[in-house]
Amino acid sequence: MIKDAPLLTIRRNFERPAPKEVAALAGVPTGHAVDAVGGRGALDYRIKPLMPLAAVMVGVAVTCHCGPADNLALFAALATAKPGDVLIAATDACMATSIAGDLLMGMARNRGLKGLVTDGLARDLAGIAAVGLPVYCAGLTPDSPARNGPGTVGLPVVLGGVAIASGDIIIGDNDGVVVVRRSEASTVIKRLSEVHAAEAALEAKVRGGLEIPDFIRAVLDSERIVELP
């Protein structure tokens, strides 16, 4: 006979990035972060903020896998998270019920958390707006979840097509969410200076009237282009 699965499996003591690494990514636009990561790392485009953000969200991921139509693991992640963390709630992209609302987000604010990212749905739009924390999700529904489990906290999840581990750094703005792996944070931070410089240089050329960038012109003028009659 197979035993019933535990309600929750929790790993609290995961490795965290250095505080200076998180601070170094504060205010970094997701587009710059993606370029520094290597061109990928953003979650599925359907995971967007419920309302426009005035500032970039940056924090340390605390992951949970809730499964469909259940948020017991999300409450456990809330209890596990520390100030400055971002709750990451994988629901297997369940569209049947919400995963969080204004009351859970109010508790997250009271604990000093930075926001919530989920591949599921949320509810209580006006209440969440009053709380003031960013919520990234796939949409809204007033339907509510159960709290029965099973679920996990602190273990790796896949959310929005991207693998996320607790301790990774999460960056979110109005374009979406980017994951910076903890093991790659120092490398990404070093690359950012080059990304910022290249972006600023190209922006200056565009303001000066640039129509076609040199790297595209070089391709168009090369022997690798075939012109048809």
Question: Could you explain how this protein is built, in words?
Answer:
The chain is α/β, with parallel strands linked by helices and 229 residues long. The chain has a single domain, classed as Ribonuclease E inhibitor RraA/RraA-like (Glucose Oxidase, domain 1), CATH 3.50.30. Helices cover 30% and strands 22% of the residues. The longest helix is centred in the C-terminal third of the chain and has 23 residues, at 185-207. It is elongated.
Largest sheet: 9 strands, mixed
* Number of β-strand runs: 13
Which descriptor suits the 3D outline? elongated
Domain module tally? 1
What proportion of the residues form beta strands (DSSP E)?
15-25%
CATH topology: Glucose Oxidase, domain 1
Q: Please tally the helical runs, counting DSSP H or I stretches of 4 or more residues.
A: 7
Order of helices and strands: EHHEEHEEHEEHEEEEEEHH
Termini separation comes to 73 Å
CATH structural architecture: 3-Layer(bba) Sandwich
SS-derived structural category: alpha/beta
Looking at this structure, what is the CATH superfamily?
Answer: Ribonuclease E inhibitor RraA/RraA-like
CATH class: Alpha Beta
In percent, how helical is the residue content? 25-40%
Outline of this structure?
By secondary structure, the chain is of the alpha/beta class. The protein has helices spanning 19-24, 30-37, 72-80, 102-110, 125-131, 185-207, 214-220, and strands spanning 8-10, 48-49, 57-65, 85-90, 98-100, 115-118, 121-122, 135-137, 151-153, 157-159, 162-164, 169-173, 176-180. It has one domain (8-195): Ribonuclease E inhibitor RraA/RraA-like (Glucose Oxidase, domain 1, 3-Layer(bba) Sandwich), CATH 3.50.30.40.
